[in-house]
Design a protein that fits this description.
By secondary structure, the chain is α+β, with helices and mostly antiparallel strands. It has four helices and eight strands, in the order βαβββαβββααβ. Strands 1, 2, 3, 4, 5 and 8 form a six-stranded antiparallel sheet that branches. A two-stranded antiparallel sheet has the order 6-7. The radius of gyration is 15 Å and the shape is globular.
């Protein structure tokens, strides 16, 4: 199913736990900003460090952040841009689920769109279960209500039942 949406606000999650994690996030941010239909309207959370969750092998902590960025392309096209960025960073095309990664870019939401295809689900199906996504997202969009939800991002964060340790603030501006 193809969708065409003009200048939608997309929620994007950034993560890295291999190499220069801060540099990886910053470079991915620059690459996505270059594709944005309105770079000056994009907002970014602080960067947080989090313990790995359900990793397939022992690995170090992640740096995580979220953004709301505007694009005038379909969610499917944005997915391919994100996958291309990951590949260019050296992330293998075929990989184990939850393995360590140089860069990980996930589309969290696309305005109020609901989309389910073989390759893309919007809103992201795990968004409400992950402190490392909810906490940075609550920083930039605390009152946002995802499609098919009644509680805001901040309310979901406040009621989150998680064994994840607290996040550590690393950098506010990046």
């Amino acid at each position: 199913m193809k969708t065409t949406n003009k200048d939608l606000p997309f929620g994007i999650a950034f993560g890295s736990n291999i190499g220069n994690r801060l540099e990886n996030l910053s470079k991915a941010k620059e690459l996505l900003l270059a594709k944005s239909s309105n770079p000056s309207s994009c907002i970014f959370s602080s960067i947080y460090e989090s313990a790995p969750v359900n990793c397939s092998e022992p690995c170090g902590p992640f740096l995580n952040a979220t953004a709301e960025m505007h694009f005038d392309i379909s969610p499917e096209r944005l997915l391919y841009i994100c996958l291309d960025i990951e590949l260019n960073f050296g992330r293998p095309k075929i990989r184990k689920k939850n393995e360590p990664r140089i860069i990980d870019l996930d589309i969290l939401y696309a305005g109020n769109l609901i989309l389910k295809t073989n390759h893309l689900k919007i809103p992201h199906p795990e968004i409400l279960n992950r402190r490392f996504v909810l906490e940075p997202l609550a920083e930039i969009r605390p009152n946002f209500i995802l499609p098919n939800q009644v509680k805001s991002i901040m309310e979901h964060l406040s009621s989150l039942k998680s064994t994840e340790p607290p996040l550590k603030l690393i950098q506010s501006n990046w």
